[in-house]
Amino acid sequence: MSSTELPSVPAAHVLPQVATVRVAEGERLRSVGLPGVTLTVRSRPPRREGLPPALYVHGLGGSSLNWSALMERLDGVVDSEAVDLPGFGDSPPPDDGDYSLTAHARAVIRYLDASGRGPVHLFGNSLGGAVSTRVAAVRPDLVRTLTLVSPALPELRVQRTAVPTGLLAVPGVTALFTRLTRKWTAEQRVRGVLQLCYGEPGRVTPEGFRDAVQEMERRLQLPYFWDAMTRSARGLVNAYTLGGQHALWRQAERVLAPTLLVYGGRDQLVGYRMCSRAARAFRDSRLLTLPDAGHVAMMEYPDVVARGFRELLAEVEGREPDPGRPGAGTGSGAPTENSGS
């Protein structure tokens, strides 16, 4: 594994014509070369030495930036790193053009094997939740606990609001969509994404909205942006059709790691009703439901999600959370309903 620390303008080392990737205060980016892929890894130095490692995996169309708020709130609990999956964030496309769910999981496994950080506290959102489920199932030695925020696991009855995203997997749809939306500004696109992914889009600060627009402008300049989106969506849909030991729900049943499941009541992409099935499938699970959250609870309600993870960690380590720490909870381990307020 080769690792290169990226300066404050990291994208210049990959695509000189593309704008800067945002780095939050206290974070670092580095480029890691692995067989067949190069991953950008976002890290936040832990508050003290010796904290257990954590790895965060984003969803379709997202990036490691999606985890910055949660990473900040857990910097006294875990040693956090978040990856940009191949073709997303600041990671270039994979050498073989493979964006299947298995390929994304393989990239995460290769990084964990090469870095020697496992077993980690593994976090995944949406597509990253499906990827993390597969990693935990096939390589239990690499996963200490599993936290899934709206994991993209197969649904028999898909919500109508999720259909357009799934249609990206259909040949020709992406080309049609890009033609129909070629005059849309980055600001219009971001507003659409927020309406789809947030339970309460008004919670996004003006600064956060501005940063999102800048990131959208940067990513739209990438020549492989739509290809990565389309092929990853197709890879996820294809994974839904697999049977036997490769079926995602079958793999969920194989996960040994203690698991925290986080679902939003206003999620328009992953059905809220799936939380019950997930709680049954993962053998050692806890359920955290946030009625007002959408698809990215770790961005909308990072304090609540951080508290849920602290409770999981306290239970696993056999101790009570420190009530003096911000976001500390009671650690009941029972299904929890929280309005997120």
Automatic annotation (TrEMBL):
Region: Disordered, residue numbers: 315-341
InterPro entries in alphabetical order: AB_hydrolase_1, AB_hydrolase_fold, AB_hydrolase_sf
Organism ancestry: Bacteria, Bacillati, Actinomycetota, Actinomycetes, Kitasatosporales
A molecular-function term among this protein's GO annotations: hydrolase activity
Domain AB hydrolase-1, first and last residues per copy: 55-300
Alphabetical keyword list: Hydrolase
Protein name: Alpha/beta hydrolase
